[in-house]
Amino acid sequence: MKKLSKLLGVSVLTFGCLLALPAKAQDTELPSTINWTIPFGVGGGTDVWARFIAPHLTKNLPGNPTVVIKNQPGGGSITGTNLFFQRAKSNGADILGTSASTLYPFMLGDKRVRYNFEKWIPLMASPTGGSLRSTGSWRYLSR
Questions:
Q1: Residue 6 is inside which H or E element, if any?
Q2: pLDDT of residue 1
Q3: Can you tell me the distance from the alpha carbon of 94 to that of 48, in angstroms, rounded to the nearest whole number?
Q4: 85 touches 134 (CB < 8 A)
């Protein structure tokens, strides 16, 4: 019964996050294709989360952009996140899906980290621990 209550609670929170998706970006025209970097391998929790959310982004963002998931595994997410930090365009065409295991090395000053969360715009957070960030032209989403 306890597991069922937790599952129901997580489901309600996830649904609540999805309700926020029918939003409009202010003062910004999004590109027709958005590249979503996932710094983990295919089939992991963050990858599955991104593949679940991607169609909702396509459906609800202005212009209905195609969302392409690009997995860049390695180094416990540090490798893919470093690559994103180096390569992402500031026009909103690139977004990053992370989890706590991407944030902790940054917070703890891991010498392998070349990225800086303070330079990115948070776009969305999930009760499962996932977060979505952009390097550029996205504005805050509002109803």
A1: helix 2-19
A2: 56
A3: 19
A4: no
